[in-house]
Write a structure and sequence with these properties.
- By secondary structure, this protein is mainly alpha-helical.
- It has a domain of 69 residues: Zinc/RING finger domain, C3HC4 (zinc finger) (Herpes Virus-1), CATH 3.30.40.
- 65% of the residues lie in helices and 5% in strands.
- Strands 2-1-3 form a three-stranded antiparallel beta sheet.
- The protein starts with 20 loop residues before the first strand and ends in a 6-residue tail after the last helix.
- It is found in: Chromosome.
- This is RING finger protein narya.
- InterPro entries: Zip3/RNF212-like, Znf_RING, Znf_RING/FYVE/PHD, Znf_RING_CS.
């Protein structure tokens, strides 16, 4: 800590505690008498800048009081602040690095999922083709089964008793010789006998009929 004194007349505050001291905006310490002389010119007697000053006492703002505090305390604060900010930067960098790692991991997983999707799509295409082949195979065998059933049903009709009797009759008729068949003259005489018989029966039925 330095000794507070006037930068113009070098008067010390400890030797003249009753004399007020001021801190100018240009960072100069001026005692009350020197400030009174310079206030007429409204310029700092040391650097010539516009004179604006605040009295040095316990009521001055913290931003002004820090100029009169022990610099070691500020050095410790600076170290703490520097360490805190360095830790925060390191944490931020670590978080960014982990985000990059997570991004790379997500990228690898996405590539794996894309490959898996391509494989699954290929399997789907193969399964669809296999299903189509199975449907064709099933349709072919169903048609073959229907044709077999139709053939069996047609064969059963040929083996019925009526069909057998008609078949045997046609075979026996076709096997007769021409000599066994009646001649045309015999058929005509048989027809004449039948007609005469019908006439006689009709005449006997109408004997007692009168108009």
């Amino acid at each position: 800590m330095f000794r507070v004194h006037c930068n113009k007349c070098f008067r010390h505050r400890k030797t003249d505690p009753a004399v007020p001291f001021h801190l100018t905006q240009c960072r100069h310490v001026i005692c009350g008498p020197c400030l009174g002389q310079s206030s007429l010119e409204k310029n700092c007697p040391l650097c010539g800048q516009v004179l604006k000053a605040i009295q040095i006492n316990r009521d001055m703002p913290t931003s002004v009081a820090n100029y009169f505090a022990d610099p070691l305390r500020f050095q410790q604060i600076y170290r703490k602040i520097s360490k805190f900010q360095a830790d925060q930067r390191a944490s931020d960098n670590l978080g960014f690095y982990r985000q990059l790692q997570q991004l790379e991991q997500n990228k690898r997983q996405l590539e794996g999922f894309c490959k898996m999707e391509a494989q699954l799509n290929q399997k789907v295409v193969e399964e669809k083709k296999r299903i189509a082949e199975l449907r064709t195979y099933i349709a072919y065998h169903e048609n073959a089964q229907r044709m077999t059933r139709r053939r069996h049903s047609a064969g059963e009709r040929f083996h019925t008793p009526e069909f057998k009797e008609a078949w045997n009759t046609s075979i026996s008729t076709s096997d007769k010789s021409p000599s066994d068949m009646p001649s045309d003259s015999s058929r005509r005489s048989a027809d004449l006998d039948t007609q005469s018989t019908r006439r006689r029966s009709f005449g006997s039925d109408t004997k007692g009929f009168r108009l």
